[in-house]
Amino acid sequence: MSALAAVRARVAAAWASDIAWSFRQSRVTMAAALVTLLLVGGAVLAPWIAPTDPFDPAQVDLMNAEIPPLWSAEGDARFVLGTDVQGRDMLSAILYGGRISIAVGAAAVAFAMLLGVTLGLVSGYLGGRVDAAIMRIADVQLSFPSILVALLVHGILRGLLPASSREALSVYVLIIAIGLADWVQFARTVRSRTLVERDREYVQAARIIGRGPAAIMRAHILPNVMSPVLVIACISLATAILTEASLSFLGVGVPATQPSLGTLIRIGNNYLFSGQWWMTVFPSITLAVLVLAVNILGDWLRDALNPLLR
Amino acid sequence: MIAYVLRRLIQSMLVMLTVAFVAFSLFSFVGDPVANMAGEDASQRDRDQLRRDLGLADPFPLRFVRFVGGVLQGEFGFSYRNLQPVARLIVDRLPATVELAVSATALALLVGVPMGVYCGLNRSSALAQAIQAVSLVGISLPTFVTGILLILTFSVGLGWLPPFGRGDTVRIGWWQTGLLSVSGIKSLLLPSVTLAMFQMALVMRLVRSEMMEVLRKDFIKFARARGLTSRAVNFGHALRNTLVPVITITGLQFGSAVAFAIVTETVFQWPGLGLLFVQAVAYVDIPVMATYLVLISFFFVVINLVVDLLYYAIDPRLRDGGPGGTGKGR
To answer: What percent of chain A has pLDDT over 70?
Structure first.
């Protein structure tokens, strides 16, 4: 069999699989996937497809400030969604902003996943006092809304940093804050799966041939507890993007020099009363559509991978 | 029973002590009050003297005990930014947040429960499907986007409702209420709808799924077989059995309402605790942050405790040491 035929057979098998079937069954899911793909694609490719670079002062002209969108009377063909008070093209700003929102959200989920999966594995596999301590912390944290935890961690981290480096490190502070607010879901799920797996024969066999706890957790248990983790990651991504946007909207998120969608909404909000509604409405719609689409995808993935998780 | 209550009480107290420790660590390791209080040109000797006078040279455990003692007496220190006692700031701001959160939760229940019952009973009707779809949007729409869209429509567009502030307030004792004046009520409308939106969708979805679950149970079939009217079955038997989880989740959600009030209060410049906290974070105003942390934790711990005890009273299956924590409603 040639390599091409092998690839084709694989694609066909994937297309015929249960997951692909349930995907094809639901129009809403397909629409959500398309929207997600468009928004993420637009965000990733922003430097190449955006009409202008909103961070490049040479391309921004104050004379173009406050132009309404294309379809209103004073619209300008160069700026489809209008411009902000500094003359930046809103469409470009939204594409670049989505890039930051999605990047921070994804990085935060990755951090939460790393932390949660590790602690969940350790907690489930070792048991005893370690388990009790980790789960007690998780319980306590779970009774607080994640935005509150993120705000608090953010406040503490910023307080610990010297004032000079706060601006430069603020994106990382944000990622850590959101990640620390979201790890509990991962840890709880992985722990409960680990408790089941740890007494299986293959784990006993690995123990008998003399592998250490760390190796057993990483090489043997981890692959068997990962599938619910992916579902949680997808659902957490929507939450993380929302948390980032909320923090940026509150003015404690990313600095205004690198606006995310939440920052754009906050800045635009200042001009709501003077009639420049487009500065805040377009980023808002983009954010809402993005979160809605990712939420629908996450729900679908949860149902498709494991109906019992509902 | 008594053992369980005691265990939960001790657990709650441990949580509060941990939170107090975090709050105290904030004081101790983030920023230096001596540097804040002493002038630029204070000598090292003056600084050391000030440090001793403030009791900051004492060992860590002693200072922690003193901090907890102060908190128990309502002594939270001074705001770095406003230079006012934090306790005063909190008392000034508390009524606004409580009025907002209570009215939002009431709104969410008044609208969410009937919609959920309707959707649970008429699962496949067009209206139920529409409500279901809108509720997904309600869950996905960020609080501040809801708020901005409402302001845009009702304040900027139609000019019916004020976009920010609390309107005129009336003072009753130390409680400053906005509920007794027309402008106060008008100002409350938009923020409470904004805050209620998420909870409303949540309550509706919860009631719907619980109704569907309960309607499949045997006792419903028997009730129908006994010839009871569908009204009696749906409301007397089914709805009553769904209310336990709804009350629980609402209780827990009330805590979330207070937390999410941070965002809502920022959108509407509502002078509550949330706005105070956001400003404190932005200016690294440690005493205010620490106080908010202790206060809100106390609030959450009390809610969780009450909910757990209610559960215990209602559901006998939980009586041998069920899960101590509580699920976040999703």
So the answer is: 82
